[in-house]
User: Fold Lysophospholipase from Sphingomonas pokkalii.
Amino acid sequence: MAVLPNLRRAIPADALVDTWDARDGWALRRFRWPADGATSRGSILFQTGRGDIFEKYLETFGHWQGQGWNVAAFDWRGQGGSGRLTPKANCGHIDDFATYVADVQAFYREWAASTPGPHVVMGHSMGGHLMLRALVERAIDPDAAVLIAPMLGVRSLFGRFAAPAARLLARLGDPRRPAWKGNEKPYTTETRARLLTHDLERYADEIWWQTEAPALLTGAPSWQWLLEAFRSMAALEASPIEQLRVPLLVLVAEADRLVDARAALRIAPRLPDARVERFGAESAHEILREADPVRNRALAAIDDFLAARAPRR
Assistant:
């Protein structure tokens, strides 16, 4: 699958980046890239992971937009270009994951009402977690959904004690303070690049965007973010996900060193209409930003799924 020229480091000329106000007036940075109206295939809402920006996925957006999909995304509240919720610069903080879900719900309703169907939601990592939670809570009702390396569990040095440790440490000081410094994953000798992708050029794209627009950089999460992440993951797994009827495709990187792939493989069989695509040691966390053999296989799986479960209207 060819890479569109210059797409990875430039906003397309026919795309729009602006802001959208959430229900409480908080401004979220929004991306919209419409397809040619005469060949519209439908509409995709893609949400990134913790600390991400939608620029990291311009290459993939180009793949879908070229097929006739209208593509939209927004930076999560408190990260990227959607402001900060803590006085500590670049710290990714949230009061409650329910706030994220409320933002998705309001955005989805407006987006679905103003774009052609079928409507598909996709989420990477934290975005996958939040999209699944929004589906289970019936906050959104798309025709199909794709979860990419969803954050349904996390890898931690502390194992089953990670959540209690987060609760304790959140209480020992300002819960809005950064939980760690530097690397995406604390207490590891692995580089951030190795945790995310084997493709160093695609990793370099992210660094380029951070250098070009430093205000978009989001660093470590706050202790409160960690605490709410553990709470949300536990609540989601305990929820009646068997009642979900939306068709899902779940892409799982079994060698993922950030999220716990075992959680996704444990939860996916409980979903009544879910297909799982598994990747081995060839893929790190960012499946859609991996080396071409992995990325192309993932895109082909998504294309096949959408052709079968979200056909052109």
In short: Residues 7-309 form a domain with the Rossmann fold fold (CATH 3.40.50.1820). The chain has a mean pLDDT of 91. The beta strands are 16-21, 27-33, 42-47, 69-74, 119-124, 144-148, 248-253, 274-279. The chain has nine helices and eight strands.
